[in-house]
Write a structure and sequence with these properties.
By secondary structure, the protein is of the alpha/beta class. The chain contains 32 helices and 24 strands. It binds a DNA duplex through α6, α11, α29 and α30. This is ATP-dependent DNA helicase.
Length: about 800
DNA sequence: CACAACACGTTTTTT
DNA sequence: ACGTGTTGTG
């Protein structure tokens, strides 16, 4: 039986899955079946090595990935169980038997596996142990802690800068200060340590804001997303018993998307694995493993402190550090099951231009496929028109294609506009993936604030958010006098609000409203231990008057909000169904704070997907349009002067290309509307790095006949390309195809011209440089001369 | 205390 | 261009 299920794997996958104890780094290329490796490995640990599911910890970065992993493991076990007890494949069994098998698998195996995001897992640990923690300044929290989201954190920092420390908002922009604090936390630095690292005025001030920020969090019995990881790390460092408990518990640790870990997350994993010993000295690998899966080439989140050098350092930290061919602690999954050979070759060649990476190529397992088509558009409207014509043409030509199989990927959200307009015009159904999140909506945050205030009396921020929502006649001045009393007496705001006499003396005419509000919170707080989450939510929605108020407004917008509140109630019900053992409001709130979004509705699977390249990671589509490949847009202008940033943009491009299964279209425009005005645009550096022979284009550098032929069927909407002579060559000394001589690099040919005028840059392929490598040089480079 | 005019910034985003 | 957040007025 066991051998049978391992036969679904290729040799390297099998090597990864069968690895039992010790460290292992799995370099998993795009589309190489890494989720398969992860899930089969967990199954193998349980079935073959009889590991207790309780001893397995699997960490992911998104809830979606965690959910998918859980489902696939459950199915794996259910399939095996079906074959064993019924001698049939799972799908061949009647529905109720399948359900029974699944619930049996859940009860005996998957329920005890810890599979989740770093944040969800740490949240679980903290619900056990946070009361045993005290930070370096003696701050403490209780298990009823609130989790402040990014906007809560933002407004807290802003309040500190303006009201507490009276700093100049211009000099200390709350957003960048908040970013600095978050970065400090992600590196595991306390305010004091941060100050040591930034020994200047700005560093001192930020350290101060950071310290007051932590005071405020503690006052509110709240922590932010960064603390969710950082506090367990600090707790494990200061408390040997707690550390030893979790170290003993999680004997087999798996980490997905390891290239996305930051320093603190790495520290957490290391503490759990080695029980605090240094990683390279740790030797007690009996019945213990750490198994990390990642791909440095898909690291696209350094702007939020992800550090792919952690992945590159795994061999040194935990592994044997031997060369790739001899090592027993690294496996590369390079067979790609997703894309055609043409697409893979393009991706491989592009990423070769990066210097910081682990050598790896994606090996094709499918046919050669069709060439990638690169379209040069006049502007963003023309680009959108090209995309829709191609989609319409392909959809008509192929019976098995429907709109759900197309994706349009762009660098910035603003680019979606032109595509949305045209999709609406042609009546093509589409969905925007990502974008505004459900739990970020005002009405949802309002309701959650009620719930948080009920669970956590110290959560003053939430209390203030809804004390006058809906209107209860509690105005700014009333709130101010209540807050002032709270500060002067040194007691939480809730103590004031819930005390009738205090309210009467402080709130004057508003006293009635304040007391009514306090009564609602109090009443539901008393119900916490005896009543399920949904009942409390229902009670709050009715008695707070929130729903009544929305309905009274009678606008379309209010109706929308009401629908969303209804959705939230549904989410509570769904939570209760999925968490039979913990139907509490506390459980739901943790879940809601850490959830990015509600699940897609299934009908949307038939829509064209529009999303940023970042959102596309982990997804795949038969047909992909990679749009806006223009210098300054993609790569972004913020990365142009930083080689490391350019490499990250290149990885982003690599991610985009490797989303495509069958066909890839790339496009760029000659001019584009940006912040209201038209701006000229030049082709992206990445286009110059893509091999010509793998692409068809509508530009004169390749055969135009090919292009006209392939578009002819699509109708007359597409414009003809301007002849190449119309390049802005009149104000340039150089144009594509010119032979040049460079003092340092020798003879070469110009392959691309970026920008125009004095600040233009040239891409030159020098004959003397190995591997068709190009150099990007400023047009002002004196060492460059023309040769004919 | 509410609404309207105005200034501002604008890569990517999960938890 | 456009949405957000802050200021000013009735």
């Amino acid at each position: 039986m066991t051998t049978d299920f391992l036969s679904h794997l290729n040799p390297s996958q099998r090597q990864a899955v069968e690895h039992f104890c010790g460290p292992l780094l799995v370099i998993a290329g795009a589309g190489s079946g890494k989720t398969r490796a992860l899930t089969y490995r967990i199954a193998n640990l349980v079935l073959e090595h009889h590991v207790d599911p309780e001893n397995i910890l699997a960490v992911t970065f998104t809830n979606k990935a965690a959910k998918e992993m859980k489902e696939r493991i459950e199915r794996l076990f259910a399939e095996r169980e079906a074959a064993r007890s019924h001698d049939k494949p799972l799908e061949a069994l009647p529905g109720h038997v399948q359900t029974k098998l699944r619930s049996q698998v859940y009860k005996t195996i998957t329920k005890d596996l810890w599979i989740g995001t770093f944040h969800a897992l740490c949240c679980r640990i903290l619900r056990f142990d946070i009361e045993k923690f005290q930070d370096e300044r003696g701050r403490k929290w209780t298990r009823a802690f609130s989790i402040f989201d990014e906007s809560d954190a933002q407004s807290l920092v802003k309040d500190i800068i303006i009201n507490q420390l009276n700093l100049d908002e211009k000099k200390f922009d709350p957003r960048s200060v908040r970013y600095a604090i978050s970065n400090a936390k992600n590196k595991g630095l306390s305010p004091q340590e941060y100050e040591k690292e930034q020994p200047n005025f700005r560093g001192r001030v930020i350290s101060n804001v950071y310290s007051v920020y932590q005071d405020k969090l503690a006052e509110n019995n709240a922590i932010d997303f960064d603390d969710l990881i950082l506090i367990p790390v600090q707790l494990f460092r200061q408390n040997e018993q707690i550390r030893a408990y979790w170290h003993k518990r999680f004997r087999h640790i798996l980490v997905d998307e390891y290239q996305d870990t930051n320093r603190t997350q790495y520290d957490l994993i290391q503490l759990l694995v080695t029980n605090g010993e240094s990683a390279s000295k740790f030797e007690d690998w009996n019945y213990r493993s750490v198994f990390v899966v990642g791909d440095a080439d898909q690291s696209i989140y350094s702007f939020r402190m992800a550090d792919f050098t952690i992945l590159m350092g795994f061999q040194h930290d935990f592994g044997d550090g031997l060369p790739d061919d001899d090592t027993r602690t690294m496996v590369k999954l390079q067979e790609n099951y997703r894309s055609t050979e043409n697409i893979l070759q393009l991706a491989n060649e592009l990423i070769e231009n990066n210097t910081e990476r682990i050598d790896k190529i994606l090996k094709p397992t499918r046919g050669r496929g069709e060439s990638t088509f690169c379209y040069r558009a006049q502007d963003e409207i023309d680009e959108a028109e090209f995309v829709i014509q191609q989609m319409r043409r392909l959809e008509q030509m192929n019976a098995d294609l429907h709109w759900g199989k197309f994706a349009i990927l762009y660098r910035t959200n603003a680019q979606s506009r032109a595509f949305e307009d045209i999709l609406v015009r042609w009546g093509v159904p589409y969905k925007i993936v990502g974008g505004l999140r459900f739990y970020d909506r005002k009405e949802i945050k309002d309701v959650l604030a009620y719930l948080r205030a009920i669970v956590n009396p110290a959560d003053t921020l939430s209390l203030l958010r809804v004390i006058n929502t809906p209107r209860r006649g509690v105005g700014k001045s009333t709130i101010e006098s209540l807050q002032k009393a709270s500060i002067e007496l040194g007691i939480p705001l809730w103590e004031i609000i819930s005390d009738e006499t205090s309210v009467k003396t402080l709130a004057g005419r508003s006293a009635k409203g304040v007391s009514a509000f306090a009564a609602i919170i109090e009443k539901h707080r008393e119900m916490l231990d005896s009543v399920s989450a949904s009942e409390i939510v229902q009670g709050v929605l009715e008695e707070s008057g929130y729903v009544r108020d929305l309905k009274a407004q009678g606008t379309d917008e209010a109706e929308d909000r009401f629908q969303n509140v209804q959705e939230l109630y549904n989410a509570v019900l769904q939570y209760e169904e999925e968490n039979e053992d913990d139907k509490s409001l506390v459980g739901f709130l943790a879940n809601a704070s850490l959830a990015s979004d509600l699940d897609d509705t299934p009908e949307e699977a038939t829509n064209v997907s529009l999303m940023t390249l970042h959102s596309s990671k982990g997804l795949e589509f038969p047909i992909v349009f990679l749009v806006g490949l223009e210098q300054g847009l993609f790569p972004s202008y913020r990365s142009l002067d930083d080689p490391a940033a350019i490499e990250e943009e290149r990885r982003l491009c690599y991610v985009g290309i490797t989303r495509a299964q069958e066909r890839l279209f790339i496009s760029h425009a000659r001019e584009r509307r940006l912040y209201g005005n038209r701006e000229p645009a030049s082709p992206s550096l990445f286009l110059a790095e893509m091999p010509r022979e793998l692409m068809d284009t509508n530009t004169a550098t390749s055969l135009p006949s090919k292009w006209t032929k392939s578009l002819a069927k699509g109708g007359s909407q597409t414009r003809t390309a301007a002849p190449v002579g119309a390049e802005p060559s009149d104000d340039l000394d150089w144009s594509v195809g010119d032979r040049v001589m460079h003092a340092q690099f020798g003879v070469g040919e110009i392959t691309n011209v970026f920008g125009s005028g004095a600040k233009a840059t040239l891409a030159i392929r020098f004959d003397g440089l190995p591997g068709m490598k190009r150099k990007i040089l400023p047009i002002s480079d004196r060492a460059l001369q023309s040769i004919d």
